[in-house]
Amino acid sequence: MRLADAPDLDVTVARLGPAAHVASVSGELDAHTAPFLRRRLLPLAERVPESQLIVDLAGVTFLDSTALGVLIGTAKLLQEHGGALVVASADPRLRRLFELAGVLPLLRLERTLAEAVERVVAGQYA
Description:
Transcription Regulator spoIIAA, single chain, 4 helices
């Protein structure tokens, strides 16, 4: 769903099961688009205890600290309810950003969406 107020962001959500969703994000994640990302992710994190949320960043061309904060907040909320945030990205720059920000203890990082889905469906992050 492309957001009218955020023309540089597209977020598509798919349900994997009663407590598992995939949010595929494409475009730029910055201070302008981060509030829209938050509005899409937080309801998925709050919906069911022990929710698993995969955020596919394969189509993301830029991610700033504001958007990183949205991902961190979502990961913390999921953890508080026994769930997990799984980020799918093969981009070495994004992977390095997560390492430098020290957020790897808060979320799981997979190289591809297929790997993330496989592990979530197998219950490896439950």
